[in-house]
Amino acid sequence: MSRIGVFVCHCGTNISATVDCPGVAEAIAKMPGVVHSVDYKYMCSDPGQTMIKEAIKEHKLDGVVVSACSPHMHEPTFRRACAEAGLNPYLCEMANLREHCSWVHEKEDATTVKAIDLVRKMVEKVKKNQPLYSIKVPVTKTALVIGGGIAGIQAALDIANAGHKVVMVERDPSIGGHMSQLSETFPTLDCSQCILTPRMVEVAQHPNITLHTYSEVESLEGFIGNFNVKIRKKARCVDEKLCTGCGLCSQKCPTKKNLSEFNEGLGYRPAIYSPFPQAVPNKPVIDKTQCTFFLKGKCKVCEKVCPTKAIRYDQEDQILDVEVGAIVLATGFNVLQPDFFPEYGYGRYKDVIQGLQFERLASASGPTSGEMKRPSDGKEPETVVFIACAGSRDEAKGLPYCSKICCMYTAKHAMLYKHKVHHGNAYVFYMDIRSGGKMYDEFVRRAIEEDGVKYIRGRVSRIYEEDGKLIVKGADTLLGHQTVEIKADMVVLASAAVANDGAEELAQKLHVSYDPYHFFAEAHPKLRPVETNTAGIFLAGACQAPRDIPETVSQASGAASKVAALFSQSELTREPIIAVVNRTAPPLYSTCTGCALCVPACPYQAIEMEDIKNRDGRVVKRAAKINPGLCQGCGTCVALCRVKAIDLQGFSNEQIFAELMAL
Amino acid sequence: MAEFEPKVIAFVCNWCTYTGADLTGTSRIKHASNVRIIRLPCTGRIDFMLLMKAFARGADGIIVSGCHPNDCHYTSGNFHARRRWIVYRSLLNFMGVDTRRIIFSWVSAAEGAKWAEVVNTAVKEFRALGPYDEYKNLAPIRANWRTEHAG
Questions:
Q1: Predicted TM-score of the model (pTM)
Q2: CATH topology for the A4-127 domain
Q3: pLDDT per position as a tens digit, A626-645
Q4: How many other C-beta atoms are found inside a 10 Å radius of the C-beta of residue A388?
Q5: Which of A45, A258, A332, A372 has a CA that sits 20 to 30 A from residue A222's CA?
């Protein structure tokens, strides 16, 4: 027979104003198994808690029901009190008399009847409660940062400075990401590379950071605190230890006419190359698809000129095994690519370019050394049209979202252009100007008022070439949809920010959820913006949604602090509210029939099938096995299990049916 | 004669609707007192047998409520619940259970007012449907909860 103690709280008058608390305690006292039932003014106060503790000892209680507020409010308080009195904390339950009863109903008999019902069902539940013990899992204090843009750099530095090891994986030959391509940054117009490159160097030199560039994540196994990552280190064909980064190989490489990815196709690079002069690490890679030796079997000029004999044509991809405790995803974004705008002639007309290409044109390290020369003939454009929302907020293009950064960078582009070509005309076609942010609106006003950029509110319907000019046809909606026609020398499209290539594939490898646009999904849009639903994997930067540099940096620091908090413990404690597979003694082993229906139902990949072998090593049964580190306790598998072999601790079938039977 | 008070059991998830119902309380939004909430971690936890047991115990109506689609704390539990509901409904129809007796709804943790509305609408509808005596013919189990616990 159970020995349950029930404690009914008045919560001052919050509960007692509409519920007859002594009446509830009295009615419950008659229930079988209830040995102690009292009411008190404030159960959560010190005397209230002491009352519970003493009653547990005095009446040898094996279950406690505190009938007070919502368990979201005080369940930890009362469970701790029970634990202090030597009762397993999971033998304590709460009946929600305040939020779900006294606050929402009038003072009448029905309210007290409901209160009694609520307590009764918790008493029945607690009779079926089992003592549970919190789960401890060890933590590997190394973080994996995927992506070496500003988000990854910031997160890696913050984690490393907190004294933890960091492994950084970057897909490209150098870290730096999109920020290294930018000329100047809004709203201060400071040079992007000048503020970024010191941090890149810091990453490379930090004793706590191991950098793997030209590498990708191959697979991920494990769970929070204990991930096992396989990293594919792609063959650079250069011995990184011997290479000094002198650049002779790139200078002498005969295959020079390869479009430069870093310059967004506006310049060329050799087949053996570093993406840009400040690359970190400054060690070249050979592009096997363009190298004459790999294509035709002879050349080897780089090998001949290399003073340290660092060229390795026979280098192969390496697979590295790394154990980490937490992961920061910082894979960034991409811009929408050409063929998306047939009406704007992108890809057809050389002088219709996208935002990142304009960044390279304006950059001192770019193909024109920062001089404003248009791609087609190298002439200085006299009239430039900037089109905001090229793709963004366009349901027809399948991108209903706002790319957020374009309003600001379009203003910046127009401003940079006017600073370089004083007599030039800059027009901006826009839908709305979204310039929320510190000093942002002032920046746009500056472009309009001081630099004389002409803003036209309206959309561009078409761009076509006529007499060597690009005719931009649009409408001015502020002038009653008047048609506007501008003869431009160059057009810059603020093309939408989209999820990076391979984002979906990576999300599936890491079991991270993503939204319809393939941006990674956060655990809660407001309160858990840097966590994913997979415990131990955090998000930083534009891989979650389009965002600018200041936001990216703060989010990266946020993710880093989450990692540091995780690493501050030697082991993780988790609530034991997890699913368990029923196991009985041999020869039955389990009531699980091994149908494996639960395996795909689990949102956390916590269930796998296990072969149960006999003494001879022969497989006698296949049964589901739940990884307690991964299981989050949703119970989807429990409801799905045909033979009821799985149960959820804390919300077991027995407990819930007991609750129901009390009603 | 006093108006018929239906007995309603609500199966709600811990993260959205339970918290939403807490918010109803915090906001002091009065609503009908017929509903008894059973807290589950997720709507994905809801077993068909729980609904049947609720009817067997004399429930005149059932509310099932969880996180909005895409908002599930456990990523996809509510999708499982939604899919199961479609299957259950045809099964219930086949068995002769009145599917108007089960109300499915999404109430987020921020929708305290919506929860009150869901409860009031449900109670109103169940009241209009009257006591669910037909179920006793389907399953001759005692369903005299009202008199049983009166004393």
A1: 0.74
A2: Rossmann fold (3.40.50)
A3: 988 788 889 999 998 988 89
A4: 27
A5: A332
